[in-house]
Design a protein that fits this description.
Elements (H helix, E strand, L loop, with lengths): L1 H23 E7 L10 E9 L5 E9 L4 E3 L9 E6 L4 E10 L6 E19 L2 E19 L5 E3 L3 E2 L13 E11 L5 E9 L4 E5 L1 E7 L5 E9 L6 E11 L3 E11 L5 E9 L4 E2 L6 E11 L5 E9 L4 E5 L1 E7 L5 E9 L10 E5 L6
Antiparallel strand pairs: 1-2, 2-6, 3-5, 3-7, 4-6, 7-8, 9-11, 10-11, 11-15, 12-14, 12-16, 13-15, 16-17, 18-19, 18-20, 20-24, 21-23, 21-25, 22-24
């Protein structure tokens, strides 16, 4: 009976020692930034405190990942951190990088952390005191608030560039399209890219733009190349921009893209020589420049204008086509040709002038 009583006493003593260790070990934690759903590489700072009177050995800390938390793949893949010795009364901080599921919402979540350790306990066996290593494990709950968010809104799309905008008309061809992206949330988005989806005569040539960081309140710009074909209607064309950010978070925004009305080109006279120095030409004059005055009476500038002239009998064109370039609204431009005037009768003659502009419109 005495031997049995001794065994029971030792067992109870060992259990008490282990219980005291568990109560003395404290693990608390917090995230080091304002965390948002979908964010990756969020620093989780764990504080491990030994409030006991004995040292703890091989203290191993490992998060137990459940929704909405997950491991950051580019960090310690095992997610185990081992502290060789944690002296009594000491504390140590451990930082882990974690990912947050994009399907999470703004709320308060719990992340459990498992801690295993070895405690050396003194036991009496056969009237002798010996030190025995005892393994123990405790699980702690860490409260993590997810109060951050990212919210994208589009600004007014601009053709050309912000500093040099262009008016896009049907058939004008390939132009840069700049879309301002504004983050109205409270967390900076990282690794952001934009993909545009268009229709109604707008054909993306380059449909993806890498943005990078999108801080709250400061617009950044997604730049695409778009072919504005002849089929594009005048007015506002709606498109969609898919924004991908963090590691796998996604938002879709709608953008309103302006297409203005077409230019209206007309020939308003012709003359010999040059606009600044016109001359009189009679029958049999020979080779002489011919200029045609062209005016854009529309509401949009014309670009890439090509002019071709067809002359009546007696006038032989030596240069019958020319490139003008652009025609701003209301500003005269000139098409220059070279003609050989033969022995024709004096009078007024009519020629046919064909104008193409905006990459194909007539």
């Amino acid at each position: 009976m005495r031997g049995k009583l001794t065994i029971v006493t030792l067992t109870v003593t060992a259990l008490v020692l282990l219980t005291n260790v568990a109560n003395a070990l404290v693990v608390t934690g917090k995230v080091g930034v304002l965390a948002a759903p979908g964010q990756n590489a969020v620093p989780l700072i764990l504080s491990i405190v030994n409030n006991g009177e004995s040292a703890l050995f091989n203290v191993t800390i490992k998060p137990i990942f459940t929704f909405p938390f997950g491991p950051y793949d580019h960090f310690n893949s095992s997610y185990k951190v081992t502290i060789p010795v944690l002296p009594p009364g000491s504390s140590i901080n451990v930082t882990e990088l974690i990912n947050i599921n994009p399907n999470a919402s703004n709320s308060i979540y719990e992340l459990k952390v498992n801690v295993t350790y070895i405690k050396l306990t003194e036991e009496v066996v056969m009237n002798r005191s010996i030190v025995v290593p005892r393994s123990a494990s405790s699980t702690f709950s860490i409260t993590i608030p997810l109060l951050g968010y990212v919210k994208f809104n589009p600004g007014l799309p601009t053709w050309g560039s912000i500093s040099n905008p262009i008016e896009a008309t049907p058939g004008i061809g390939v132009l840069p399209l700049v879309i301002p992206i504004l983050n109205t949330g409270n967390v900076m988005a990282s690794n952001a890219s934009a993909t545009i989806i268009l229709g109604n005569g707008l054909v993306p040539v380059i449909n993806r733009s890498y943005i990078g960081y999108v801080p709250p309140g400061t617009p950044v710009y997604a730049v695409f190349l778009v072919n504005v074909t002849n089929n594009a209607p005048v007015g506002v064309i709606n498109g969609k921009v898919i924004l991908r950010y963090f590691s796998n978070a996604t938002q879709v925004i709608t953008v309103s893209i302006p297409i203005i009305s077409e230019p209206r080109l007309a020939a308003e006279g012709a003359g010999w020589g040059s606009p600044s120095n016109p001359i009189a030409v009679g029958p049999g004059y020979g080779v002489v420049p011919l200029f045609v005055t062209i005016v854009n009476s529309g509401t949009a500038n014309a670009v890439n204008i090509d002019a071709t002239i067809s002359l009546p009998s007696g006038f032989t064109p030596l240069v019958n086509s020319t490139t003008i370039g652009g025609a701003p609204v209301g500003v005269p431009v000139y098409a220059m040709f070279v003609v050989n005037v033969s022995n024709v009768s004096p009078g007024t003659y009519y020629a046919n002038l064909t104008l193409t502009y905006n990459n194909g419109l007539k």
